[in-house]
Design a protein that fits this description.
By secondary structure, the chain is mainly β. Helix content is 7%, strand content 52%.
Length: 400
């Protein structure tokens, strides 16, 4: 070997050693991540005379733990809410979700634990912070205890979940209903002090959910899907009935906009006796759903329609980016004689800056517990609440 070749070989060996050493010193990314968020809201309600200028306060503090080593996966989140007086003046805490699972060689997954039901538009049927009417009826962003399987990603995907129980109830202040201290809206036992005093004592059991979605068009940008749900309603008197739901949905671009559409039909079959009612209503014309501290009645049969349009604004404005404007519309068409439709429309803007995220939402609706003084608005509603009311929500959240 010539001297020149010897020098070249030596230089190559040194370079390999340096690169190897550099790689060895690079930290290996941990499969475990811990994070969380703290969120604050300003809220104005047009019907709330005691707070004509609105009110400001803490919305949520949460802790997140996630694990993913490529095969073993898991996720959990615990939340604490402490709302100001204008929002009810109460606190509560609950497990938002908590599951462990596996990712298989074909990228399909299996989760076991408190997990999100895969139903309809997924992961959300909305762009705004307050979701759609489907959320308040128990068909959006809902978490139950069981098993969820998701097929490998591709042009055709399907998911199947079986949930023997709901997500359970947790803790809260003395001015909350114990069974409703939870995140997801489930059928729950009514409360005599913080609810409607109907004596209904129902719960959800053995829920089976299936969903299929096709990704079509250029770059598979358009999603068309169908979903189905069936499960038991366990009556406190020992009588089991059923609940069923089905939905079709679309999500994808329309020119520069993003469109989401969903049509959903549900039916709760109940076995309430004549005493389990309020205001003389048919006790089987509604069920009690509860979350965030309080239960309220929802029509036992209805259709939900969702139409959302959004536009992502390119570029930055100073430190802010990720601008998206949207209008989310949803309606609950109650199939109970004399029950008036519930309407929710949210026009808004979301954006971010570093670890901060912001929502500016203008909400308008009627016959809705979060959009009017009518706490029973998702079921029957009195004539004096038959008008549109407004709610403004401005939120700042720090995510770490």
């Amino acid at each position: 070997m010539t001297a020149r070749n010897t020098k070249r070989a030596a230089a190559l060996a040194v370079a390999i050693l340096v690169c190897t050493s550099a790689r060895a010193e690079e930290p290996v990314a941990s499969p475990l991540t811990i994070g969380g968020a703290v969120r604050f809201n300003y809220v104005y309600k047009s019907w709330q005379d005691d707070y004509k200028s609105g009110f400001f306060g803490l919305d949520t503090a949460r802790l997140n733990v996630d694990y993913d080593d490529g095969t073993l996966i898991g996720s959990a989140e615990y939340r604490y809410n402490n709302y100001p007086k204008g929002q009810g003046g109460y606190w509560q805490h609950f497990l938002h979700h908590g599951w462990v699972g596996m990712r298989f060689a074909d990228k399909s997954t299996l989760h076991v634990g408190l997990d999100k039901q895969v139903f309809g538009l997924f992961p959300f049927a909305s762009n705004n912070f307050y979701s759609s009417i489907a959320f308040y009826a128990g068909f959006e962003d809902k978490y139950d205890l069981g098993l969820t399987y998701a097929s490998k990603p591709g042009p055709f995907e399907w998911q199947l979940g079986f949930y023997p129980r709901d997500g359970g109830s947790y803790g809260g202040g003395g001015n909350t209903a114990g069974a409703s201290n939870r995140y997801s809206y489930n059928i729950v036992a009514d409360d005599s002090e913080q609810g409607f005093g109907t004596g209904q004592d129902d719960s959800e059991r053995n829920t089976l959910v299936g969903r299929m979605a096709w990704h079509v068009g250029p770059d598979a940008q358009h999603e068309i899907g169908i979903s189905g749900l069936t499960g038991e309603i366990r009556n406190g008197a020992g009588v089991d009935t059923r609940r069923n739901a089905a939905a079709v949905h679309y999500a994808g671009p329309v020119g520069p906009f993003q469109l989401m559409l969903e049509a959903l039909r549900y039916r709760y079959r109940t076995a309430h006796d004549a005493s389990q009612t309020y205001d003389g209503l048919d006790p089987n014309s509604f069920v009690m759903l509860g979350a965030f501290g309080y239960p309220y009645p929802v029509a036992s049969k209805g259709n939900i329609y969702i139409a959302n349009l959004s536009y992502a604004i390119p570029g930055k404005l100073g430190p802010f980016s990720g601008f998206k404007v949207y209008n989310d519309y949803s309606v609950l068409d109650k199939k109970i004689g004399g029950y008036k439709d519930s309407v929710q429309n949210v026009a808004g803007l979301s954006f971010s800056s570093g670890k901060w995220s912001f929502y500016l939402d203008f909400m308008r609706g009627k016959h809705h517990p979060y959009l009017s003084p009518d706490a029973g608005g998702l079921a029957a509603t009195p004539a004096n609440h038959d008008r549109f009311t407004r709610r403004i929500n401005l939120q700042a959240g720090y995510y770490f």
